[in-house]
What we know:
With 365 residues, the chain is α/β, with parallel strands linked by helices. Helices cover 41% and strands 19% of the residues. The chain is built from 14 helices and twelve strands. Strands 2-4-1-5-6-7 form a six-stranded mixed beta sheet, sandwiched between helices. The protein has a three-stranded mixed beta sheet with strand order 3-9-8, with helices on both faces. Strands 11-10-12 form a three-stranded antiparallel beta sheet. 38% of the residues are buried.
Amino acid sequence: xxxxxxxxxxxxxxxxxxxxxxxxxxxxxxxxxxxxxxxxxxxxxxxxxxxxxxxxxxxxxxxxxxxxxxxxxxxxxxxxxxxxxxxxxxxxxxxxxxxxxxxxxxxxxxxxxxxxxxxxxxxxxxxxxxxxxxxxxxxxxxxxxxxxxxxxxxxxxxxxxxxxxxxxxxxxxxxxxxxxxxxxxxxxxxxxxxxxxxxxxxxxxxxxxxxxxxxxxxxxxxxxxxxxxxxxxxxxxxxxxxxxxxxxxxxxxxxxxxxxxxxxxxxxxxxxxxxxxxxxxxxxxxxxxxxxxxxxxxxxxxxxxxxxxxxxxxxxxxxxxxxxxxxxxxxxxxxxxxxxxxxxxxxxxxxxxxxxxxxxxxxxx
Length: 365
């Protein structure tokens, strides 16, 4: 699978409570003091997809296997983290390892839960985190750029191309803009990825409100939502406290409990869906009597890469992919019906995977 989203934020904003609810475990210690999470906790969660149940029913699959995402609970950052304050260096390193960032912002008042800055201001909190990540990126690039420029002057074309991109990003960071705001061409994308920049990672915001505001949000979350919109970042309003309670209920009890609070779905499902979209992923399926299985690849992936998500041998020996769209599969009542109706296509190595494709891979190793 290999796709993960790091849960970050200042101490005591609800990160570990959210993580515990996401994974329905108490693996992360939730406590009212900074740095209670000393090592990043990793949990895998199923991505809700109603299509999988439909496919399993049509084909009579004995087992259903949803696709998954990893969420990583990373201990709270504090102002000065880029200079090693708190446990800054360790945690910045942990963030560097994830594919995307879900920043939790505290949007609730509670005198029993202290805030590291003394007052509740999610926009200030978000800016503290962004500033620390930008400072860490700037420090990293300023150390690397002179040597790269030196190589470029000596005629190293690869170093020259990298230096051009790095110079643009350094300028942006010095002007207070994260790396993700810098336009890079398709050819420059691999260069940007190799830099492993914190502020180049896609980011979403989780606005953690109190239980009474779970359905509609509140004045504090409204400010945070406007901040997210101004940066083109998705956001989800949840109450981590409610999600923690829901995680302990049986499946048949959850809907009734949520309805009593004016909620139609768990916040966790919305966080998972937003994280999935943030990573720009698509789902394809393999379906048969034994199991209906959902798989994940990045948008734009080719058929052999999809085959490789199942097994590396499938990619190495890829011949073709027998392909049926989800809509055609359902409309025709399954694989055989789709074949009879001429809706099954044979796709080759250059085929770009579409969300909802049902594949049967042919390969030879």
